[in-house]
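Re-run with default settings, no changes from the original entry. Doing this only to confirm the output is reproducible before filing.
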Amino acid sequence: MSQYNKVYMSKVFSFTPDYAVVINAKEIIKGGTGYGLNNKLSKQVENVCLDYDLYRIKYKGYLVKLDTNGTNPEILEKLLVEKLVGYVVMDIKAPFYKYELLVGTKVDIDKIKDSIKIIKSSNIDYEFRTTACKELLSEEDILEIA
């Protein structure tokens, strides 16, 4: 059996079982939302392969709806190209000029814009939504988002 120095394991869903084969490695690093929201792997590792459970769900004939905040257009595009989702819902939090203020963290607006373009140019059903809170968004803001 081969001995590895380091093995990365990633999964999207917590219900996805861990890889069943015994892995002979000095270090196993687990990441992705399936292992908890704070368990993140490097971008190079995360973007290599999607959660294999998505393929199993697809081939069983289930439709998959994806809810996204649009911050990872690369994964979104991969999911759409591989036809692993049948419906996408993207939350648009605020007009672009007000995004970071409302979400309370640094946001790459170009990634949000790229995700919008990817979704609009896809051949699947989609919707864009926002939570309208009158204390945070004005009527003009809502019109700007639309």
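The first strand starts at residue 4 and ends at 10. The chain is about 30% helix and 20% strand.
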